[in-house]
Amino acid sequence: MPMDPTFPVYIEIEKGGLIKYEYDKDEGKLVVDRVMPASHPYPYAYGFFPSTLGSDGDELDALIIRNSDGIKNDTTYNAYIIGALVMEDEHGMDEKVLCVLGEDYGRMGDIDVLSEDIKKTIETFFSTYKLNIPGKWSKTYGYISKNKAYDLYVEALIRYSAAT
C-alpha cells in the first residue's frame, strides 16, 4: 500500500515544554513568547509548516503526535498529515494540523485511529492554554479528517504564494 506524502514541519516547542517559543523571521531564531504554567506543558511537539500562511496570518500550525520524546525544537521533520483540530482564537481561525513521523504512520496514519485520550488531551490543552492571559482566548470545535487537513495545507500554501 503506498503511503501518503510527507511535509516539512519545523518544531518550535518540544513535547512537555513549558516555554512557548516562536520563530522570529527577522532574527532567524526562536524567541521566547511566554512561559506556560507548570501544570500546562505542551502535550506534543508543536511548530508549523514552513512557507505556508494559515487563516490567522501566521504559518499553519502543526503538532507531531508521538508517545515517546525525542523530537527536538529548532529542527525540521518530514511528517505525515493525519487530521486537524479546528479552533479559533483572538486572531481568527487557528487550526492545528496533526502529524506523525514515518515510524508511527502504520499504526497512527489517520485521525480516526487516534485514541480518544490523545484527542481529548490535545483539545483540552488548546481550549485552556490561553486562560488567564488578558486579551487572549481560544475555543476548539473538534477534529476534521486527513483529507480536510490536506485541504488546509494546500490553502495555506496558496495564501503564502499569493502574499510573497
Descriptive account of the structure:
With 164 residues, the chain is of the alpha+beta class. It has a single domain (7-163), classed as Alpha-Beta Complex (Inorganic Pyrophosphatase). The protein contains three helices and nine strands. The strands form two sheets. The protein has a five-stranded mixed beta barrel with strand order 1-4-5-8-6. The chain is globular and about 40 Å long. The mean pLDDT is 93. Its cofactor is Mg(2+). GO terms for molecular function: inorganic diphosphate phosphatase activity; magnesium ion binding. InterPro entries: Pyrophosphatase (IPR008162), Pyrophosphatase_sf (IPR036649). This is inorganic diphosphatase.
Could you say what the CATH topology is called? Inorganic Pyrophosphatase
Number of strands: 9
Percent strand equals: 25-35%
Approximately how much helix is present in the residues?
10-25%
CATH superfamily: Inorganic pyrophosphatase
Classify the secondary structure makeup into a structural class. alpha+beta
The sequence of SSEs as H and E is EEEEEEEEHHEH
Q: What's the end-to-end separation, in Å?
A: 37 Å
**Poorly predicted ranges (pLDDT <50, ≥5 residues)?**
none
What is the residue-mean pLDDT, rounded to a whole number?
Answer: 93
